[in-house]
Write a structure and sequence with these properties.
Strand content: 5-15%
CATH topology: Lambda Exonuclease, Chain A
Number of strands: 6
Number of helices: 7
Bound molecules: iron/sulfur cluster
Shape: globular
Strand order of the largest sheet: 3-4-5-6
Distance between the termini: 20 Å
Length: 184
């Protein structure tokens, strides 16, 4: 089960808080996962083969999903890694429909960052190449407020000295590379 969007004050400045898209994704999935990740516990090195397999599959999909289409990852401010831009539209590629909500907020954060830091207002698309499906994403005022609340919560979660408590395993824990750390 993914987490509800929190409500709290926005961060003072995106450039000083420096939150990555991955951190937004992980926070929405599970704040404890964000904490492990932000404290240098890399998923490739824990939790057996599941995490490494997922990382490898994601890399393969990024390389092979659109073989006829010229595209490349775009780095913004040495912070955000956008899968690709097509006519100014921001694309995020996902291998499955899992974690849809986390993917949505990750992409909304990219749109929010581009608008606020670069004055570039655009839309986004989540690409599901295995399902041959695309979903258009718009940044509305309500979504902007949600992103600001998430960014504030990401910053406070990262600053905690111990990981947030999760009372019981969730369905997503079965696919999480940190499951041995949390529940082993
Ligand atoms: S195993 Fe579950 S509780 Fe632990 S970090 Fe992963 S999703 Fe969160």
């Amino acid at each position: 089960m993914e987490r509800d969007t929190p409500s709290s004050s926005p961060p003072a400045s995106l450039s000083t808080v420096r939150v990555t898209g991955t951190e937004v994704h992980y926070y929405v999935l599970c704040p404890r996962k964000l904490w492990w990740f932000s404290h240098g516990i890399e998923q490739e090195h824990v939790g057996g083969s599941q995490g490494a397999e997922n990382v490898a599959m994601g890399q393969m999909l990024h390389q092979d999903s659109y073989p006829g289409k010229p595209r490349k990852e775009v780095m913004i401010d040495d912070l955000l890694r956008i899968d690709f831009l097509d006519d100014g539209v921001v694309h995020e590629i996902k291998k499955s429909k899992g974690a849809q909500r986390a993917t949505l907020y990750q992409l909304l954060y990219y749109l929010y960052y581009l608008k606020r830091e670069k004055g570039f207002v655009t839309t986004g698309v989540i690409d599901y190449p295995k399902q041959r499906r695309r979903e258009t994403v718009e940044l509305t005022p309500q979504r902007e407020a949600e992103i600001e609340a998430i960014l504030a919560s990401v910053a406070s979660t990262r600053s905690e000295s111990i990981p947030p408590v999760v009372d019981a395993p969730m369905p997503i824990c079965k696919k999480c590379a940190y499951q041995d750390l949390c529940w082993g």
